[in-house]
Amino acid sequence: MTVRRQPLSQTQTRVLDLLSAAGRPLSAYDLLGKLRGEGVNAPPTVYRALEKLVREGLVHRIESLNAFVACSTPHHHDMATFAICDQCGLVTELTDRPLQEQLAAMSSRSGFHATRMMVELRGHCAACAAKAHGHGASDHAH
Amino acid sequence: MTVRRQPLSQTQTRVLDLLSAAGRPLSAYDLLGKLRGEGVNAPPTVYRALEKLVREGLVHRIESLNAFVACSTPHHHDMATFAICDQCGLVTELTDRPLQEQLAAMSSRSGFHATRMMVELRGHCAACAAKAHGHGASDHAH
DNA sequence: CGATCGGATGTTATATCATAACATCTATCT
DNA sequence: AGATAGATGTTATGATATAACATCCGATCG
Ligand SMILES: [Zn+2]
Ligand SMILES: [Zn+2]
Ligand SMILES: [Zn+2]
Ligand SMILES: [Zn+2]
Q1: Please, what's the b/e burial string for A21-59 (b: 16 or more CB within 10 A of its CB; e: otherwise)?
Q2: How far is the CA of A33 from the centre of ligand 3 (A)?
Q3: Which residues in chain A are closer than 8 Å to B133, comparing Cβ atoms?
Q4: Domains, chain B
Q5: CA dist., res. B42 & res. B115, Å (int)
Q6: Are B24 and B91 a contacting pair, CB within 8 Å?
Q7: How far is the CA of B132 from the centre of ligand 4 (A)?
Q8: For B51-76, what is each residue's pLDDT tens digit?
Q9: What is the pLDDT of residues A26-63, one digit of tens each?
Q10: Residue A135 has what DSSP assignment?
Q11: What residues have CB less than 8 Å from A99, skipping those under 6 apart?
């Protein structure tokens, strides 16, 4: 599954591994925290590695969280869709080809040429929606 | 379904007017800059006004720009779609009912209960796409 | 009237996210 | 060796956002 076109540097590999292991979005400073003591001491290194990984399509940036997550299906795809549970923090990357086509159609209909399409849904995951019967649980948040 | 609108405070009105007049997204600090000398001297006031306006459905936050824009059709709508030109900075709020329904269907199909749906397209507007013939012009950005 | 309550604001300080600018190091190609 | 490209280190700063607490004011109610 790991289709890597360019070889990754040490730090880039380390960042990707950390994101994959986390299985949830991490902020650049979360990553920096985990990399201190491994020779990574400042934000630019982390941001540079993330930039590369995003370029390579291995990592997505989630705008509404200011955080990064390993791509669940690492192909280059210029559209990413995320469902973000505001209760437990679960983030799921969704794929829906028809949606992508419809979005592209909608944008081009207005003459817009989209190079990147971001869809982020906020709400409650199935588990949390089931649990939620009027009362609130321990809000996770980011 | 009675859409009860709360009266807006002085600052809230001022912020909404500034956003409407700008016709483009402004950051909270852009707004603060314009409000200094009118008794608004610190970020919290601006953020609080924006929070209220977003709650009322009069303003949208554009996540990928960290900026705010007046809603083009101020109804409460939990889905907002924006086409953002990376060249000239033009931001257009799009409406597409079928897309909204398809997104809702997709999310609920996976058991997710969406309360808010964000769609942000990055690329080039019709005018800039026409001008762009391989060469880059004066990248505007925000 | 006077109590009190909610909404808005002021104020200070700080947290969080991101980049500029410049120096260094190494691998690779010529 | 010289040149190039990519990655990293380092220092400093910019940009975005919130915490915590105090004050003010209009509406409501006993
Ligand atoms: Zn992906
Ligand atoms: Zn959940
Ligand atoms: Zn709107
Ligand atoms: Zn444009």
Answers
A1: eeebbbebebbbebbeeeebeeeebbeebbebbeebbbb
A2: 38
A3: none
A4: 1-71 (1.10.10.10), 74-142 (3.30.1490.190)
A5: 31
A6: yes
A7: 10
A8: 999 999 999 999 999 999 999 998 77
A9: 999 999 999 998 989 999 999 999 999 999 999 999 99
A10: S
A11: A81, A119, B99, B102, B103, B106
